[in-house]
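Fig. S4 source data, part A: sequence.
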Amino acid sequence: MPSTSLAPQGHPEELHPFQPDVTIDRSSPTPLHLQISMPLAQLILDGTLPPGTRMEDEVSMARRLKVSRPTTRQALQSLADRGLVSRRRGAGTVVTSPHVHRPMQLSSLLSDLTTAGHKVATQILSYEQRPATEEEAAQLETDVGAAIVALERLRLADGEPIALMRNLLPADLAPTEAELTEKGLYDLLRERDIVPHTAKQVIGARNATKKEAATLSEHRRAALLTAQRTAYDAVGRAIEFGSHIYRASRYSFETTLFAG
């Protein structure tokens, strides 16, 4: 591991961009761009560089650290690829809001975000009770025409949109629209003694549509994580079907794997 020493040059809120004081070890097997990006990533993740901090541009950084411009470009781009900074023409490289890491478990996104220390808000985009269509009945494993509630919510963390969530529930189990603005869906189900016991879930990825990008404050065709989940109670009744999309630049799933 290369020897690195980092110190902010001035307060992050000042107009002058942050200049990382990095010690480059040219004898190290660690690539030069990683010797720059790794300590910068640590400063962002531990909160030393708060969201909104403007970074030194790649030309100035290359000149100051005596490395090539492609090296500093690769270092800054690797931070962008991890969602730690945003890079836009005219705006430069700016530290983004904290990335949300969510454990893979049967829990509410609102509860997970709150536990992780984020300020969470929910916007109810639609809430409708109606007979299930053929597709909805198949998704919720119920009869066509059964009474269901279909809802769509936008979840925000620290003022930023994180997830767009569409859910179907049997009407007799569904929380009210007002309740869903205050608490997570699974928490509300448990309050009704409806306990999610098992679930089938598929994780995927795709590009955002124009409408989705606008709702999530992303650029068109931005990368999205997708999750489709059917949750069951202890007797095997489907109690909820969810089709959710998440901003890949702000969100990731975490899971623990065990050797067989």
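Fig. S4 source data, part B ends here. The first strand starts at residue 85 and ends at 88.
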